[in-house]
Design brief:
A hairpin with a 2-residue loop joins strand 12 and strand 13. Among the domains are: 170 residues, Beta-Lactamase (2-Layer Sandwich), CATH 3.30.450; 161 residues, Heat Shock Protein 90 (2-Layer Sandwich). It has 545 residues and is an alpha+beta fold. The protein contains eleven helices and 13 strands. The protein binds adenosine-5'-diphosphate. Adenosine-5'-diphosphate binds next to helix 8 and helix 10.
Length: 545
Amino acid sequence: MRWNTFRPFPANRVFLRVFGVFGSLLLAMAVLYGALMVPLQRDSLLKVLYSQASTVSRSIIQASSDAMLTDDFGFVVEHNLQVLQNNKSIQSVLIVPRRGTAISITTTGWEMLESDKAPIQPGDYENESFGIRQIPGTASTYRYITPIRFSGVSWGVMRIDFDTSDYLANINEMIRQIVLISLLSILIILPVGYFFALWLTRPIAIISNAASRVANGDLDAHVDVPRADEIGDLSRSFNQMVDALAENRQRLENVNLDLEIKVAERTQALDELNRTLDQRVRDEIAKRKEQEQLLIHQSRLAAMGEMIGAIAHQWRQPLNALSLVLQNIALQFEMGRLDQESMKRLKDKGEVMVMRMSTTIDDFRNFFKPNKTAKLFDLDTALRNAADLLDGLLRNHNISVSIQSEPGIQILGFGNEFSQVVLNILGNAKDALIAHHPAQPSIHIKVAQTAQHIEIRFEDNGGGMDETTLNKIFEPYFTTKEEGKGTGIGLYMSKMIIQNSMHGQLRAENIPGGACFRVTLPIHAAEEATAETDRTSAVPPAPTF
Ligand code: ADP
C-alpha cells in the first residue's frame, strides 16, 4: 500500500475510533450549545418583554394619574385606546381601583365592571407579577400586573396582556438558527474530522500493514510516509529496521551458503577418506607390524647383549680355573712331573670347568627358549633362577639380592617370558644401583599372596626416579641411559608380557631411597592352569639362542 493510494473509508479500527470520537464530540457540542443557548435567549426575550411592559404601565399610570384620581374614565379609556392602537403587541389593559368601577380596554373596545368582579388576586394590589400564561384553546399571553400607587398609597391594580407571537417567533427563529448553525458546523466539521482521522490513522495503518508483511517474511515491504512529524520519523525508522533485517537475512543466507559449501567439501573429503580408509588402515597395520618387528628385533638384541654379559660373568670364574689348570699342566710338564695320574686329575678338573661353562650356556639357552604354550610354573623357582643368572654380574658390583617367597605358588603362563620381565627389572635395578652407588646396594624381592592376587615387589635402593621419568618409563624407546647402554624397550616389553600374556599389571613407584616395581598377577591364573594349558603367547617370542 502506498501513502498516496486513496481509499474513501479505510476500515481500520483506529480510523473508526478517531472519527467516531471526533463526530460524537461534535454532536455533543452542538446539543450542549442548543441546550444552553435556548434558555438564555428565552430569558433575555422575557426581560425585553418585562421592560416593555413596565415602561408601558408606567407611561399609562403617569398619563392617567389625574384622571384616575378624579374618576375621569373617559380620559382613561381614551388614552388607553390610543396606547393599544400605537402598540400592536398590547392585547388588553385592565385597570382595577380598590373601590369603584374597573375598566377593561381591548383592541376591539372597552367595558366597565365592578372592581370586586374583576379577575384580580388580593396580592396583586401589593406585588408586581408577570409571566407567560398559557390559556387553553388560545395563544399564549405575556401578562404583567402591577399595583397603582399614588404618593405611596395603593390606589388599585393595572393588568396588561401582551401578544407573545413576536416572542414565540423570536424563540422559534432562534432555535431554527441554532439547528442551522449546528447542521452547518456538522457539515463543515465532519469532512474535516474525516480527513483529520484519515491523516492521523492512515500512516499507522500503512505501517501496521507493512509490519504484517515483514512478519510474513516480505522484507521488501517499505513505507513511504513523507511527513516531518513523529509518524514520519516512525516510518523512516521502520524502513531502516526492515533494511537492517534484509541485510542480516542476506548475511545469514551467505553464511548458510558458505556452510553448505563447507559441508559439501567436508562430505566430499569424508567420502574420499572412506574410499581410501581401508587402504590406509591396511597401510597403518603394516606399518605397525613393521614397527613391532623392529621392536622385537631390538628387544632380542638387547636380551642377547644382556645374556652375553651375564654369560661372560658366569664364565669368568670357570675360565680362570681352566686357565689355572692349563698353567698347572704346563708347569708340571716343564718340571717333568706330568705323569699319567696328574694328567688325568688335571684333565678331569678341566673337564669339570668346561662342563660348568657348558651348563651355563644350556641354562641360558633354556631360559630364553620361547614357550609355545602357557604352562604352570613355580614362582619361587622362576625368581631364584633369574636371580642366579645375574648372580655373577651382581656380585661383581657387591649387590646383594634377597628373595622372600614361599615355594609352591604356581603361576599359569609363559615362564620364560616372565623370567625376561624379572631379568629386565633386576637389570634396571642393577644399573640404578651402579649409577647411584649407595653404601649397601641391595635388591629385595618380596612375594605376597591375597585372596585375589599375587604381588611381587622388586625394591632397590638405587635412588628412584624423578616425576617425569616415572611417567614415561613404560613408553617404548624411553631411556635415561647413555647411548649404547639403554634401548628403552625393556619395561615396555615387560608391561606387554604382564598385561597381555598374564593378565596382570606392572606398576612402578618411588620408595624411600629407591624404586619399587610391582607385578600383580590374578590368582585365578593358577586355577585356570588345567583348562588353558594350550594358550599361546600374546607377545612377540623371546629371542632364541
Ligand atoms: P633401558 O633400561 O634400556 O633404559 P627400560 O625400559 O628397561 O629401558 O627402562 C627405562 C628407564 O626406566 C631407564 O632408562 C631408567 O631411567 C628407568 N628405570 C627403570 N628401572 C629403574 C630403577 N630400578 N631405578 C631407577 N630408574 C629405573
